[in-house]
Amino acid sequence: MAYALQQLINGLTLGMIYGLIAVGYTMVYGIIGMINFAHGDIFMVGAFLSLIALLGLAGLGITAVPLAIALAMIFAAATAALYGWTVERVAYRPLRGSFRLAPLISAIGMSITLQNFVQVGQGARNKPMQDMIPGGIPLWNDGTFAVELSWMQIAIMLTTLVLLAGFTYLVTRTPLGRAMRACEQDQKMAGLLGIDTDRTISLTFVIGAMLAAVAGMLFLLKYGVIDFFIGFIAGVKAFTAAVLGGIGSLPGAVLGGLLIGLIETFFQAYFSVQYKDVAAFSILIIVLIFMPSGLLGRADVEKV
Asked: How far apart are CA 2 and CA 249, in angstroms?
């Protein structure tokens, strides 16, 4: 029982990270109806930016952990926002009126470009980092196994919940959120009503990239090692989470992320580490067979 509780905590922590990345996927799909396959690599870039910032701050003598993490997160999110804006301007905006496969192919090309850019700039070897937030809260000890909620896991959960609450407020209560929802319903009509659709779409990519960068930093701090290829793996799983929860649904993206994190964690704990990804994708296939729009997704209504 204690071991299962520990795996539950670990799965929720991993699911929170996947959920943050999945929100970026579902935001872009909700507005332009296309998948940004470069989004996972923005997550990877955010992790590397966080590592560079933390090393730079240490070199400057800033060793207070809360301050260093806060400054590194701001730097990574701001720089990743520029990457997100560039992806939209280069890979999507020129092809927005083209056939639907063109932006998809362009996004895959951008993904490969980002991977190779980081590989050349930072090297192909794994980049380790020491644990910056050690320790935790002991929850239970049954004599054979001790359950602990680490401070890092608490930080991941709190950060994710605060960001998701803030983003939900932005979407539902602000002029930008109303513009995003209007563009989701009908871009042409939104433009006729005075909404700057290009600006709204660009800001959607920027916000999604910032969330991905924060997820990248949380991943770095939690697992302590990154490489140029983590964006592909995490991106595919986050995309799976978005589809599982219902592509286009923000709560669905978070729910899907939590489910993927729990499935992956429990499967590798009780069965096989090598087949944990197979388990997650198998659950996705089963859900989509019986619920094609995902757990919280809405069925598409075709306008005629």
From this structure: 34
Q: How many CB atoms lie within 10 A of CB 272?
A: 10
Query: What pLDDT digit, counting tens, does each position of 76-111 carry?
Result: 999 999 999 999 998 888 887 777 788 888 888 999
Number of Cβ atoms within 10 Å of the Cβ of 58: 11
Secondary structure (3-state) at 78 = helix
Instruction: Return d(Cα 33, Cα 78) in angstroms, integer.
Output: 25
**First CA to last CA distance, the chain:** 55
Token pair for 101 = 């496969």
21 and 40 Cβ atoms separated by less than 8 Å: yes
Spatial separation of the C-alpha atoms in residues 12 and 15, rounded to whole Å: 5
Q: Mean pLDDT, the chain, as a whole number?
A: 87
The candidate with the shortest Cα–Cα distance to 258, out of 15, 11, 8, 21, is 15
CA 118, distance to chain mean position in Å, is: 18
Tens-place pLDDT, residues 221-249: 999 999 998 998 888 888 888 888 887 77
Burial class for 70, CB neighbours closer than 10 Å (0-12, 13-18, 19+): exposed
Percentage of the chain modeled with pLDDT above 70: 97
Q: What is the dihedral of CA 279, 24, 250, 17, to 10 degrees?
A: 50
CA angle at residue 129 from 125 to 133, to 5 degrees? 155
Cα separation, 110 vs 296, in Å, equals 30
**12-59 pLDDT tens trace:** 999 999 999 998 888 888 787 778 888 999 999 999 999 999 999 999
